[in-house]
Amino acid sequence: MPVARDIMTPSAECVGAEDNILTAARKLTDLGVGALPICGTDNRLKGVLTDRDIVVKVLGKGKDPEKTVAGDLAQGEAVTIGADDDADEIFATMAQHQVRRLPVIDGHTLVGMIALADVARALPDPQTGDLLEALSSN
What we know:
By secondary structure, this protein is α/β, with parallel strands linked by helices. It has a single domain (4-136), classed as CBS-domain (Roll), CATH 3.10.580.10. Helices cover 39% and strands 22% of the residues. The chain has a 4-stranded mixed sheet. The protein has a 3-stranded mixed sheet with strand order 2-3-4. Strand 5 (81-82), helix 4 (87-97) and strand 6 form a beta-alpha-beta unit. Helix 4 (87-97) runs parallel beside helix 6 and helix 5 (116-122) runs antiparallel to helix 6. The relative contact order is 0.21. It comes from Streptomyces varsoviensis. This is Histidine kinase. Residues 8-66, 73-131 form the CBS domain.
């Protein structure tokens, strides 16, 4: 069975915890992605910022995207997956935490990102349906 490092998108770029949301939105746009890991000045992963976070938690609440920083949107400890964890473990982690994207770490180093589509391609068909159902339920 494939492991995370086999199916991830390698070399994920971070948005800095102190970067403002406007900078983060431009980075999402430039990279053509829907999520970026949030990294602190200590090079530790602080969370994941999604395009939805920007719309709902910043714009939707009338906050200024130039004054709001990415670190303000990091919620507790980031949910991650180990680089050598297999597709079943990735599936279980995504379902348990109701997330569609996971940072992949090797020790404490961010080595990539894995998205729902990556896992769907790696899992047998019945598990893919289970994952989509688990992520879609409230």
